[in-house]
Amino acid sequence: MARYVVGPASELPPSSRRIVRVNGREIGVFNVRGAYYALRNLCPHQSAPLCLGEVTGLAVSDEPGEIEWTREGEILRCPWHGWEFDLLTGCTVFKSQACVKTYDVRVEQATLARDSEGVETYPVRVENELVILEY
Amino acid sequence: MARSRAEEEQCETPVTLIDCDVHPYLKHEDELRQYLREPWRSRTIPSRRQIYLPPGDGRRLDAMPEDGRPAGSDPRLVERQVLQGIGADYVILIPSSSISIIPDPVFAAAVARAWNDWQIDTWLGAYNWHGRFKSSIVIAPQNPERSVEEIERLAGHPHLAQVLVGSSALAAYGKRQYHPIWEAAARHNLPVALHVESPVGPTPPSPLGYPTYFLEFHTLYPTIYMTHLVSLIAEGVFEKFPDFKFVFVEGGSAWLAPIMWRMDKDWRGARAEVPWLKRRPSDYLRDHIRFSTQPVEEPDNPRHLLHIFEMMDAEHILMFASDYPHWDFDDPKRAFPRLTDQLKRRIFCENARELYHLPATRPFDSLDSTQSMAEAQDVGATR
Questions:
Q1: Which of B118, B282, B339, B356 is deepest in the core (most CB within 10 A)?
Q2: β-strands B192-195, B246-249: how paired?
Q3: Where do the domains of chain B lie?
Q4: CATH class entry, domain B11-370
């Protein structure tokens, strides 16, 4: 499992996203209320840049004509044909075979320890956490 | 070998052909009048207006009774040409009532009720000694309240198998104003059938108004059918009434798969607008919607129709109809390409049998014995 540093967590606050290029692949990293999710920037339908789509909520209904708005911020809507994807799973919210590839994301304390091994060291203050993408 | 009457009474014959669209006609316009109360009885009843000119004035010329009355008005001739002629075990009658053309919803409901009382006395009563005529409850959907009352009044009649509405309507049938009617029909386990009506009605017969020729009018029936179909699904009628069944009669069916593909595709993007749909639009077909075959499409290459049948899952949703006594009658033996036994069984019998809760066998009757004799004589004559 390879590791890619997306950037300081402070630059990726809740409700924001960043699209990074890793090994020639574009991957969108989303902060959903403090949790991070990463999806390939490629809609399984017609290869649109999925991660440029609107982040929205999910309309559900138990009765025709009545709509309840749920899961605000957890749904990604493709910028081309409007397909809705669950940011948490990468799958369409309707039953289909179409799931977009997802990646694990974790947050690490930023440290310079490894980089400074064997040379003269200086005290470093950790100001940030890093968002790390595993691919 | 001839059977005795006692043997006949006990003998059952398998049901193999159900004709889902046969039109019973009044012997004369005044026949309906006796079933109307004043002030309606003295009024002129708006009737089917032919503004387009179909071949044969709309009927099979050999279906004209000898007494000069309208085609479809003589039950003996219907027995001979449909029950015996094409071998239909049961027919589903669809009165050509054209209720939708009556702008006054109160008058329309009164006329609908008169049609029902008339058919209960005649085609489902005096003419129905064999019990092989089933029919449709005529309602005036422009008057939802009275339509519900009419369904409540007649549900449970042993020969009324469905509720009938016209294709021309004030609004597409998925709209909420119609939901009480569908609720009542579903509660009584009665499918609702939509049949084409007079070109003169609350809406023009095509999305672009009145075409010039009959050819256009007739070819374009599916445009109105598509509108109702898409509306019923989009508005969630089948989610709201899980037992509700709807039948499209006389619009053909070859257009169905492409419109469903289109709706499924659009739904994937527009789902959030109609979140009550829990399945793909086309997934509602098999559980809730049936199509009658007539007028069956006749492509140059008959195999193309078989492909289309496969695309639309005809095995589960298509039901044979002849449209007797109309000019574009389909003969079950001649109108179709060669079907597999399974498909034939489903289309000619099983789909309709399940929908209308008809038995797997019916009593052998004297039409069967005279049919055998007539066939034997035919064979003799041709030898």
A1: B118
A2: parallel
A3: 11-370
A4: alpha beta
pTM equals: 0.92
Of A61, A82, A96, the CB nearest to B270: A82
Chain A residues with CB-CB distance to B279 below 8 A: 95
Domain range holding A78? Answer: 3-134
The whole-angstrom separation of Cα A64 and Cα B233 is 11
What's the structural domain count of chain A? 1
How far A72 CA sits from the closest chain B CA (Å)?
13
Residues of chain B with a CB closer than 8 angstroms to some CB in chain A: 176, 235-237, 239-240, 267-273, 275-276, 279-280
Query: Does B280 contact A93 at a Cβ distance shorter than 8 Å?
Result: no
ipTM for the predicted complex: 0.86
Separation CA B357–CA B105 (nearest Å): 32
Phi, psi of B376 (to 5 degrees): -60, -40
Q: What is the CATH number of the domain that holds A41?
A: 2.102.10.10
Which residues of chain A make contact with B240, given a CB cutoff of 8 A? 63-64
Contact A65 B272 (CB under 8 A): no
CA distance A71 to A60: 10
Q: Is the pLDDT of residue B365 over 60?
A: yes
Query: Nearest CB to A64: which of B240, B267, B272?
Result: B240
pLDDT digits (tens, 9 = 90+) for A7-17: 999 999 999 99
